[in-house]
């Protein structure tokens, strides 16, 4: 397929790589952005944490927690245009769906569709929004239950986070809000190393081996070198091991422990537009 200047700029904005490198990677990947990012990484390029699927899809994300702060939900309703996403009636509709999710706490999206709203059900609320705005819309839903759940909504309803904590107190809740903002900013893939999906680990090892190979390292040492680089990956991409954005001298695990001995994150949910 033909790679356009807009495609090259988009990949450059996503990765920070040079224009020619982006062009070559896109041509080699036949226009596949995920594959192009992987190609850049295998060639030793340091790319940013953004992913090819983070297109500027519009919509709104709402995160809510229960009054006792033991349950939380995140709901996203995508739209095709910014015009719809910023419409107050649309935002109110997403908020109403999120409230229905919190009130009924359904196990999955199918159950959520039947949940009651002020005007009927979540499904009928969606149908009303579709009829009014005549745009393709897609609903996403996540829930979380813990001793304490803290929420965060990124500016303009662009992202929503809920963080589950191991104990409940006012101090823990405020710390949880900080950690929720950390998730929105740094986009960890898991709470800790044990939670990282094996496919992600295998992909990182594959990329590390390819980079080491291009650096001229002995074939017999490639896997060992790649596995050695995993510690850096875990430090940068698992929540408890990430440097705290408000105080880079400590990681999230240390920050939580300083707030309350033994306080930790049990789980988190993060939904963004795109």
Report on the architecture of this protein.
With 274 residues, the chain is α+β, with helices and mostly antiparallel strands. The protein folds into 2 domains: 1-54, Ubiquitin-associated (UBA) domain (Helicase, Ruva Protein, domain 3); 58-192 and 264-272, Elongation factor Ts, dimerisation domain (Tetrahydropterin Synthase, Chain A). The protein is 46% helix and 21% strand. It has a 3-stranded antiparallel beta sheet with strand order 1-2-5. It has a 3-stranded antiparallel beta sheet with strand order 6-7-10, covered by helices on one side. A two-stranded antiparallel sheet has the order 3-4. Helix 5 runs antiparallel to helix 7 (122-133) and helix 8 runs antiparallel to helix 12. It is flat, with a radius of gyration of 21 Å. Residues 49-56 have low confidence and may be disordered.
Number of individual domains: 2
Q: Any idea what the CATH superfamily of the largest domain is called?
A: Elongation factor Ts, dimerisation domain
Helix content: 40-55%
User: SS-based structural class?
Assistant: alpha+beta
CATH architecture title of the largest domain: 2-Layer Sandwich
Radius of gyration, CA atoms, in whole angstroms: 21 Å
What is the fold-level CATH name, i.e. the topology of the largest domain? Tetrahydropterin Synthase, Chain A
Beta-strand content bin: 15-25%
Count of DSSP-assigned helices: 12
Mean pLDDT: 90
**Biggest sheet overview:** 3 strands, antiparallel
Distance between the termini: 23 Å
> What is the number of strand segments?
10
Cα shape: flat
Order of helices and strands: HHHEEHHHEEHEEEHHHHEEHE
Q: Which segments are poorly predicted (pLDDT under 50) over 5 or more consecutive residues?
A: 49-56
Across the major sheet, the strand order is: 1-2-5
What is the CATH level 1 assignment of the largest domain?
Alpha Beta
